[in-house]
Amino acid sequence: MTIAAVLTGDLIDSQGVENTQEYINQLRKVLEQLLDVCTFSHEIYRGDGFQLTLETATDAMRCALLLRAALIAASPEHARYDARIAIGIGPAPEGNRYGEAFVLSGQGLDSMKKETLGLFTHDATLLDRAELPTAFVARIIDQWTRVEAETWWLHATTNTSQKALAEQVGKSQVTVHKALQRAEAPLIDRYLTRSREWIQELTDGR
Fold first, then answer.
1. Domains parsed from the chain with CATH numbers
2. Exposure string (b/e) for 24-38, b if CB count within 10 Å is 16 or more?
3. Which end of the chain has fewer CB atoms within 10 angstroms, the N or the C?
4. What digits encode the pLDDT tens for the residues 11-23?
5. Which superkingdom does the taxonomy of this entry point to (predicted)?
6. Which residue pairs, CB below 8 angstroms and at least 24 apart, start in 136-142?
7. 110 membership: H or E segment, kind and range
8. Which tens digits make up the pLDDT trace of 136-181?
9. Is the dihedral of CA 125, 128, 129, 131 positive or negative?
C-alpha cells in the first residue's frame, strides 16, 4: 500500500461561456502542457470533468495550482477559464483505481459548493496542517488575473530570476515583480514547500 494523490476537478461555469467547446479544448491543451512539469495519468469525462493520478503524491498541491494557473492564463478577453479541484490523498494499492485517494477526491469534489480548491484525506495530522492554508491559497487564486496567473506559472516552472523572466515575456522587471507580488507568489511558494514536506512525512510514515 502506497500513499497516492488524485486530483478530481471540473471547469468552472463551462456552460456559461460563449464557446464551451473551446473551453474544453483548452483544458486538453493545459493538461498536455502540465505534463512537462508534473508526471501523471489522466482522463477527461462528462466533457468538462477530469481526473489526474499523480506519480508522486508530494506533487499534489503544485500540480493543482499549476493547472489552475495555466487555465486562467489561457482565458479569452471576455471570459475566465478556471477549475474546481479536489485533492485526495490516501492509501491506494498499486494499480487499483478505487483506493482511498480516488474515493476521497471524487467525493470531495461532489461536496464542494463555492470552494475552488479542497484537500481531502483521512490523515488527521495532514488535514490539521494543510486544510486551512489550502483554503487561503484558493482565495488568492480566485482573485488572480490572467497576467498574474501567467507570470506565476512562468515563475513556478522556469526556476529563473525575475530579470530573466522579464526578458522572456518582453516586460520590465518592475512589471514582473509587481505581478508576482499581486499574485502573492512568496506566500504561494512557502505553501507549496511546506505542503510537500507534510505529504512527504505521511509517505515516509507508511
1. 2-204 (3.30.70.270)
2. bebbeebbebbeeeb
3. C
4. 999 988 889 999 9
5. Bacteria
6. 137/65, 137/187, 137/188, 137/191, 140/183, 140/184, 140/187, 140/188, 141/65, 141/68, 141/69, 141/72, 141/116, 141/117, 142/116
7. helix 100-111
8. 999 999 999 999 999 999 999 998 888 998 998 888 999 999 999 9
9. positive
- In one-letter notation, the amino acid at residue 92 is A
CA distance 16 to 196: 35
Residue with cell 478577453: 77
C-alpha cell at 49: 470533468
What the block records as the C-alpha cell of 82 is 478556471
Per-residue cell: 86: 479536489
